[in-house]
Design goal:
The chain is an alpha+beta fold and 260 residues long. It has one domain (3-259): Endonuclease/exonuclease/phosphatase (Deoxyribonuclease I, Chain A, 4-Layer Sandwich). It has 7 helices and 14 strands. The protein has helices spanning 14-19, 22-29, 48-53, 91-94, 121-142, 177-188, 194-198; strands at residues 3-10, 33-37, 56-61, 71-76, 82-86, 99-104, 107-113, 147-153, 191-193, 208-209, 221-222, 225-230, 237-242, 254-259. The longest helix has 22 residues, at 121-142.
Length: 260
Amino acid sequence: MKSLEIISYNVNGIRSAVSKGLIDWIKTTNHDVYLFQEIKANELDIPSEHFHEIGFQTHWFSAQKKGYSGVGIAIKNEVLHDNVVKGMDIHQYDFEGRLIRLDIGDITIINSYFPSGSSGDERQQVKMAYLDDMYKYIHDIKQDSQKIILAGDYNICHTEIDIHDPKGNKNSSGFLPEEREWMSKLFNSGFIDTFRHVHPSLLHHYSWWSNRANARGNNKGWRIDYLVTTKEMEQQIEDAKIFMDVKHSDHCPIYLKISI
């Protein structure tokens, strides 16, 4: 294996996505690693056998609250990996199943479902606390591992070209100045937005659409899902894409190909 192909995908319910053809899509695309967010299911209720039947191992980290949050990984049997860690050792986030990590050789992959602040001030405060704690967490890991991929649904659009209506959403959670500043801080501290690295000014490419007013049909979306790497991996980035035509969720999958 000379390259590693990775998908990050907020499935908005793993069982729902499976019922809409997710397994067939994985079988057809046959990438190496699929990172899922918002699985919304207890591990025992996930039809893992469907993944196993097509040659993938699975690792799930569910929220304690039923039908909420949670993350997971499906990885090809032949992709050797170790050090699977569920959670970041902070109770309030681990209770919500926010993060799972594993290592493939010298690469650490972290898959996270960042909190949304759209339901009100209390959750926005949780989101901002998570951003601070994530920044510390990722830099602590970076002291030991130079090659990190931080994947997932960040619930933040970084710049104006990442959202269909920047002016109308300037006060919306997900596009607040302090959230966007956090993204800039992350990228300025030695991390790369791989999609923008490959496509610096590509317009109208989004990864999530509201269910209201035919937003997806009109492509009125937000790019809130990311595959971010450390600067040490810059020379390994081969390609990055957003698969906007894939529909098992209100999000779509995003893709990264790296040389290894």
